[in-house]
Design brief:
This protein is an alpha+beta fold and about 650 residues long. Helix content is about 20%, strand content about 25%. It is built from twelve helices and 34 strands. The strands form eight sheets. The chain has an eight-stranded parallel beta barrel, surrounded by five helices. The radius of gyration is 25 Å and the shape is globular.
């Protein structure tokens, strides 16, 4: 990647400075209850902050995004720490590369930001399981976000690793962190366990000391604050544009009669779900409410200022089950790709009315390049690649096992059994207890039969002779991130029936697709052909591959781009082994996926691997994917889905 010289110097200085922020400091940041404000170094202080999630933005773009936020007039940023992003397996911690939290905090500090840190342990954030690691579910009856002993032990170990990393970056220690949130929107959770909040408060204090300002965030309603607020934690609220700002803050005043007014999540946009229209929030409404907040002297954090991308399998879901797409654009002031928008400039104009905004233009929108169409070819069906995909081979079980039972947390697993009777006539294959979490792609002797889908399609008709091989490829579409159903088990979580008979005697394959793709194994094998269903509308789940080279003679390449899937239905896509995420143009609203330039290469062909789950166009149409320079996030949605009311998280509980 090419960066301006100043940025390179900033990056170099940041690398040298990591670990050196703990300097002798007399800096103080505290709550001034007498004057209803924060006090920074003994003087009244108000922050105007923006949310940015380092986990959703490639490390190479952290500086670009932070500088654009700084030039908008923000004096602080807010970020979450997703526990599962750093501890995917128990006691196996990863703080390197895109997960280098300390580097991100140092960059923010060097650019001139203060930091509002939200380390959880639960974060929501439309992130897989709200940031909680799936391995917590190995105890089937665990009560998450409570005083459950197993949960508390895991939290204590995690925070014992995370919080010492944070402590040198506290403002009192010469770093940028002015406030730290304890848990997140706990008043929206059913448990209402005050002992849990007390335990977290004691835990945070033991690692971070008594000087740091600890706070909570809840919806702007006394009902949320009842279980979300706790003495010793400063209570703040969240709300979006269009409402009565004074009334919203009155809820905070009920919990905090004195002290600064704080909106910790002022929504600049809103989240998306597959099958719903892309959320768009009018920029004038955002500007009007922001002006009203600042006119009251309140502190505000704009959520999101840049949304970013749910690469890989990191998207969450809401209940009733509605998964979020790969894009987390959020209709924010900076787009998913960091592009400047009209909303950005309007927000900057509002901020300028209340505080100084840095002189000069923000860094420009990064250029995009349309690399064009890439011919794809079939590599292998999932069934034919099982020996390659399942390192340990199948596990035999009378009844289905879940992802957690198989020690797999993300992606796909394959369940195989045999038809116990002749089904020459269509016979219902059913999930009577809604136990397919989340989509099951069914084949009989390699012929596609249909799709079982959580909450939407609990039964399909299949045909086949007695003894025929039944395969069900089950896709984990992302765990619920909000409300009482976050203990979201995946796979076949209950029995299936064939007619009136319960299916049994399963072979269950845990699939390591990401590892196989990253090592290029598919490109070394023989090629096959798709198998169509009788209706020719479905093809058996299979991998497809193609490659393209970056054009020579064009300066400043590679550049960001977007990948489009003409006539493809649903699946997962990798470029050079990097898991971009899920595509689902058949349901929408997202059609294209963002491709950051840093995963592309100029010294060798770029390999594209697609796992198409529903219907590939390769035997009946143009077998190509296409790289374009403009995103499509708001395509027509024809699939009926539950609509969630804007700005009311209670509707999502």
């Amino acid at each position: 990647m090419a960066f301006p010289g100043g940025v390179l110097l900033l990056l170099l200085s940041s690398v040298l400075a990591i670990g050196n922020v703990k300097l002798a400091s007399s800096s103080t940041f505290e709550i001034d209850y007498k004057n209803d404000c924060f006090a920074k170094d003994g003087k009244p202080f108000r922050y105007v902050s923006g949310s940015i999630h380092y986990s959703r933005i490639p490390r190479v773009y952290w500086v670009d995004r932070l500088q654009k936020m700084y030039m908008a007039g923000l004096n602080a940023i807010q970020t979450y720490v997703p526990w599962n992003y750093h501890e995917a397996l128990p006691k196996q911690y990863n703080f390197t590369g895109d997960r280098d939290l300390e580097h991100f905090l140092q960059l923010a500090h060097d650019i001139g930001f203060l930091v509002i840190l939200r380390p959880g342990p639960y974060i929501c954030a439309e992130w897989e399981m709200g940031g909680l690691p799936a391995w917590l579910l190995k105890k089937n009856d665990i009560v998450l976000r409570s005083s459950d002993a197993d949960y508390i032990n895991a939290v204590d170990q995690w925070m014992g690793t995370l919080l010492p990393k944070i402590k040198p970056f506290l403002y009192q220690n010469g770093g940028p962190i002015i406030t730290v949130q304890v848990e997140n929107e706990y008043g929206s959770y059913f448990a209402c366990d005050y002992n849990y909040l007390r335990h977290l408060t004691k835990l945070f204090r033991s690692h971070l000391g008594d000087e740091v300002v600890l706070f909570t965030t809840d919806g702007a309603d006394q009902g949320y604050l009842k279980c979300g607020a706790l003495q010793g934690l400063y209570a703040t609220v969240d709300f979006g544009p269009g409402g009565n700002v004074t009334k919203a803050f009155s809820a905070q005043r009920h919990a905090e009669p004195r002290g600064p007014l704080v909106n910790s999540e002022f929504y600049t946009g809103w989240l998306d779900h597959w099958g719903e229209h892309h959320s768009v929030v009018n920029k004038d409404a955002v500007a009007k409410s922001l002006n009203e907040i600042l006119a009251l002297g309140a502190n505000v954090n704009l959520y999101m200022f840049i949304g970013g991308t749910n690469f890989g399998y990191w998207n969450g879901a809401n209940s009733p089950y509605a998964p979020q797409p790969t894009s987390y654009d959020y209709d924010a002031p900076l787009t998913e790709a960091g592009d400047l928008t009209d909303k950005y400039f309007l927000i900057r104009d509002v901020i300028r009315m209340y505080k100084n905004v840095p002189d000069g233009p923000p860094p420009p929108t990064t250029p995009k390049f349309a690399y064009g169409a890439v011919k794809m070819k079939m590599l292998k069906t999932v069934a034919s690649a099982l020996d390659m995909l399942s390192f340990s081979g199948p596990v035999k079980s009378i009844y289905p096992l879940t992802f957690i039972d198989m020690k797999q947390h993300f992606g796909f697993m394959l369940y195989r059994t045999k038809l116990p009777k002749d089904c020459s006539k269509p016979t219902p294959l059913s999930s009577p207890l809604n136990g397919v979490h989340d989509r099951g792609y069914v084949t009989v002797d390699g012929v596609p039969q249909g799709i079982l889908e959580r909450d939407k399609c609990l039964s399909i008709n299949i045909t086949g002779a007695a003894g025929s091989e039944v395969d069900i490829l089950v896709e984990n579409m992302g765990r619920i991130n909000y409300g009482k159903y976050i203990n979201d088990f995946k796979g076949l979580v209950s029995n299936l029936t064939l007619g009136s008979d319960t299916l049994s005697n399963w072979l269950i394959y845990s699939l390591s697709i990401d590892e196989v793709v990253s090592k290029g194994f598919f490109w070394k094998g023989s090629h096959g052909r798709n198998v169509f269903s009788h209706s020719a509308k479905l093809t058996t789940p299979a991998f497809y591959g193609g490659s393209f080279s970056i054009p020579s003679g064009i300066p400043d390449l590679p550049q960001d781009t977007y990948i489009h899937f003409p006539d493809w239905r649903k699946g997962q896509v990798w470029i050079n082994g990097f898991n971009l995420g899920r595509y689902w143009p058949a349901r929408g609203p997202q059609v294209t996926l963002y491709v950051p330039a840093h995963i592309l290469r100029t010294d060798a062909p770029n390999n594209i691997t697609v796992l198409e789950l529903v219907s590939a166009p390769c035997d009946s149409g143009t077998c190509t994917v296409e790289f374009v320079d403009t995103p499509i996030l708001n395509a027509t949605v024809s699939h009926p889905a539950l609509k969630h009311k804007m700005f009311d998280k209670g509707d999502l509980a």
